[in-house]
Write a structure and sequence with these properties.
about 250 residues; about 30% helix; alpha/beta; elongated; five-stranded antiparallel beta sheet
Length: about 250
């Protein structure tokens, strides 16, 4: 994993130097790319270099650390608040702080915080990689329809609107992106064949999914896929290799 770009924001030079020393000695994954002594200066540096992590003092003259978040249109970094006063803890976490450290900084607490954020960044980067690879499946699909037999007759639906199909004995439950569900008296194997070549994958004996509606893949023996309807679908160990090949990733 490449080093994590970080900046230090603190109006006290000595505090920045102490933290810089601790990071360089005990946290080799961190690369301090900038320092700021005020919120305005920090906002400029963040805009210029896009750090992944910001160590942010709260109690500073003119504007406190919380004001930084009002000056940025997007927050694309993790923040660790560093302060002498623990009464700011609740407010810090309301600002979605990744962690909160009290001065004087305790080395083992700093190391634990950095290790935890490094894991968050690693997982986030893997999800970005997966999302990028899935983009190919999310391009406008060929507009095709499929006929579903119901008690009232045939219903024609767009395949791109199908999120997933789930086996239930000799029936198949078909779930759509608008939240609707249709139950048809055909086995899942029938729809696996009917939807072949249309961006669907059989990831389990019970589940056929639309790759355009995959939101996340969580690693495991087989793994778990999170669909756009927020349903968690288990990937069987037997189907894992084929599924990963289809989405073009090797995790």
């Amino acid at each position: 994993m490449s080093k994590i770009r970080a900046i230090l924001v603190d109006d006290e030079y000595e505090s920045r130097q102490t933290l810089l020393h601790f990071l360089s000695r005990y946290c080799p994954d961190i690369e301090v790319s900038g320092e700021a002594c005020s919120v305005d200066e920090a906002a400029g540096i963040i805009t210029a270099i896009a750090p992944e992590l910001v160590f942010l003092d709260i109690n500073m003259p003119v504007e406190n650390g919380f004001k930084l978040f009002e000056k940025l249109p997007d927050i694309n970094f993790y923040s660790v608040f560093v302060t002498t006063y623990d009464e700011y803890a609740v407010q810090a976490f309301k600002h979605h702080a990744a962690d909160y450290l009290l001065k004087p900084i305790v080395i083992h607490e700093l190391v634990a915080t950095v290790n935890r954020i490094a894991k968050l960044i690693e997982d986030k980067n893997k999800m970005h990689q997966l999302s990028f690879l899935l983009d190919g499946f999310r391009q406008p699909a060929e507009i095709t329809k499929i006929a579903l037999p119901t008690m009232e007759g045939l219903i024609y639906v767009y395949t791109m609107d199908i999120v997933r199909c789930e086996a239930n004995d000799n029936y198949t439950h078909i779930y759509f992106k608008d939240g609707k569900k249709i139950i048809v008296s055909r086995t899942l194997a029938v729809y696996e064949e009917a939807l072949k070549g249309k961006g669907f994958a059989r990831v389990h004996n019970q589940h056929l999914i639309n790759l355009q509606h995959v939101e996340k893949y969580i690693r495991g023996r087989g793994g778990i896929v999170i669909m756009s309807d927020e349903k968690a679908i288990q990937v069987s160990q037997r189907k894992k290799e084929e599924f990963l090949r289809l989405i073009g990733i090797n995790i």
